[in-house]
Please model this.
Amino acid sequence: MTTSSSADNPPESSPFEQRARRALEYLTAPVAVILNYFGERAIMLGQAMGALFRAPFRLRLFLEQMEFVGVGSLPIISLVGFFSGAVSAQQAITALRIFNQERFVGATVGISLAQELAPVFTGLMITARAGSGMATELGSMRITEQIDALTTFAVDPIQYLVTPRVIATTLIMPVMGMVFNIVGLLGAYLFSIYFEHIDLGQFTEQFTYWTDPKDYIIGATKALVFGLTLSVAACYQGFNVRGGAKEVGLATTRAVVAGSVSILVSDYFLIDAFHILWPYKS
Amino acid sequence: MNQPPAPTSHTAAPGSVPGPGAGNPLAQRDERWQIRVRGLNKTFGPQHVLRGIDLDIERGRTNIIIGGSGQGKSVLMKHLMGLLHPDSGQIWVDGVDVVPFTPAEMGKLRRKFGMVFQYAALFDSMNVVENIAFPLIERYKLSRDEIMERVRDLLRRLDLAQVDGIEKKIPPELSGGQRKRVGLARALIDRPEILLYDEPTTGLDPVATKNVDEMIRRTADDFGVTSVVISHDMASTFRIGDRISMLHQGKIIVTGTAQEVLSSRHPALREFVETSGLVAPENGGGQA
Model:
């Protein structure tokens, strides 16, 4: 019979040590998953940003994405914006009428559109339309080896595919948010004046008194952040597809879910931070 | 004649992994061998895909790597082009070990290569001309006329020029064979020295397969490129291959001319060849 010497085999840990290790692994596993989740996306974002400052600079790709995300989303943003404004006015008037203060509808809708409705709804719409499109397109390119083909031509796929999408979405989001604001205000105005017969002077006076440039700065900043998060989520999912058509579909679903959730969660923290920076007018 | 399991026709001893530096016969440009692979290993998690590959690719000839599905053919090809990095081993291209290359150096090296993908991998968002011209547009500052001249020359030489409105067609409007040709044109536009084909006849009917075989043969002759073809289509392999190597369980088990490979006794190769119907089974006697 042969026996192995202690020099060959490391000493076995005691049962307590083994249980302690398992317990530690159990406790740290969720942290590792979360760090991994954010880490992988942060790495892709870092690579995309790094590529922005490295030649060649492909302005055409950037403009194409601006057109796809921005111009292509204009009809849906306008439609949703108009009805969101009108519905907000309807709800505000119903609530304000209890206190006989309907004249504040312009201010209420103006602030909520600028700070919340415009950036959040625009983000959700862009996620649904452009984010899903990005994930599907990049996923299809991955499974049909188009991304590998780019590499064989010594083209950095992150620089070619991800950087223009992330930058274009991030920059176009505040613009789209502003479009939402304008069309939303139009919807609120038309509903308030023509359906609820609110006085035009009071509507505009309260709107101009209570809304500040800072409301629009808050909205635009939020839109910028939402554009970044939704585009990174979409590009990450599409770029890392493995398998076939089914996986492309799943990646698209995950991109929309991740984009939407990231918008709603980051919205909470952003608005909290902004309210610390700029407390409400009293 | 080669006998299993050792590869034949190698100038270096199989399995030997010479180090870099002076005196290493691999570290100089060889007139016969353009690519020389030694001791290549690659693992994906628990899966050991390449197990010490030794392979020589002959300059200016059609080199075919055959093997069953999941044997690591595509992984090997991706290593040749630097799309994957090996765990260990050396890949000598024209006397230079490219494994330690930085991404920038690898980018320059890739200009020597052209790759024709299994399903062509044409860019869906571009038409035929834009697809073919892509490497030129990305790499050089050429005038539109110069680019169009080279694109049209290739369309003519690859029998695509007579297809109605070919230049403006987008990939979904092309047939399987046309897609392969456009993919080949894109790979050839920057005049590579080495052309890699990843299973070029997969998914094609027998007539289209024969056409693609002819295209590979003609390309090798007309353009003087070194061709490396990954395939499991035995009929194509013996039609066009100057030098055939079989990859089995992560190793090259047989290398030689078509005749040498056909007469090999290696059981895995016999099974592969006999199943393809090119030769009758051993007990059936003789070559078909």
User: Anything to note?
Assistant: Chain B has one domain: 27-279.
